[in-house]
Design goal:
The complex is a heterodimer of chains A (117) and B (113). Chain A is built from no helices and eleven strands. With 117 residues, chain A is mostly beta strands. In chain B, the strands form three sheets. In chain B, strands 2, 5, 6, 10, 11 and 12 form a six-stranded mixed sheet that branches. In chain B, strands 3-9-8-7 form a four-stranded antiparallel sheet, with no helix packed on it. The chains are: A mainly beta (117), B mainly beta (113).
Chain lengths: 117, 113
């Protein structure tokens, strides 16, 4: 149980285009999902907290107009990198926290590697 | 604020050696503590957790005990295998902090046959 998927797993795009990454909780409902960014050989950097049916809460220094987050249902959150540039290339990981029960454990997706040319 | 400090890596061990990866934390309240493992090119997988003082989390031969007096949650395994090679992250989560997790910097473990 507690499986989280991400799609796509890998994407290459041209500079200036937008890229959408999906995060789905497959076998549980997730009121809250988190989006992280991970640079090579570094820890995870929390970008934003996504709550179903409300606006995402962004961490300091994260541009909300550049990284659009939508959490339209209890099983799906999307991150759209708008007008991507090479410096946005990174490994993006989402996690989901189950509604009810253990609300402190996060279940992570497999990550999406974005390369912007 | 909250913080997690992990033993710096990389750590290289021979198969069947004993593993310890140190982790200490600073928190304002009463956090839950976690160890996650990340294999190359993948997301994080929950390895084990402990939710209160003196709890011991264990999984796949790994274990860690929540020590409130020393604010530590050291990861141990008695006999490592080549397949344990990965990056290990210590983390804490507090319900009062909107459930956000604070991660350590990660420790890379390489196990040689």
């Amino acid at each position: 149980g507690a499986v989280v998927s991400q799609h796509p797993s890998r994407v290459i795009c041209k500079s200036g285009t937008s890229v959408k990454i999906e995060c789905r909780s497959l076998d549980f409902q997730a009121t809250t999902m988190f989006w992280y960014r991970q640079f090579p050989k570094q820890s995870l950097m929390l970008m934003a907290t996504s709550n179903e049916g409300s606006k995402a809460t962004y961490e300091q220094g994260v541009e909300k107009d550049k990284f659009l987050i939508n959490h339209a249902s209890l099983t799906l959150s999307t991150l759209t990198v708008t007008s991507a540039h090479p410096e946005d290339s990174s490994f993006y990981i989402c996690s989901a926290r189950a509604s009810g029960g253990d609300q402190e454990t996060q279940y992570f997706g497999p990550g999406t590697r974005l390369l912007v040319l | 604020g909250n913080s997690v400090t992990q033993m710096e890596g990389p750590v290289t061990l021979s198969e069947e050696a004993f593993l310890t990866i140190n982790c200490t934390y600073t928190a304002t309240g009463y956090p839950s503590l976690f160890w996650y493992v990340q294999y190359p090119g993948e997301g994080l997988q929950l390895l084990l957790k402990a939710t209160k003082a003196d709890d011991k989390g264990s999984n796949k031969g790994f274990e860690a005990t929540y020590r409130k007096e020393t604010t530590s949650f050291h990861l141990e395994k008695g006999s490592v295998q080549v397949s344990d090679s990965a990056v290990y992250f210590c983390a804490l989560s507090e319900w009062t902090n909107a459930g956000k997790s604070t991660f350590g910097d990660g420790t890379t473990l390489t196990v040689k046959p």
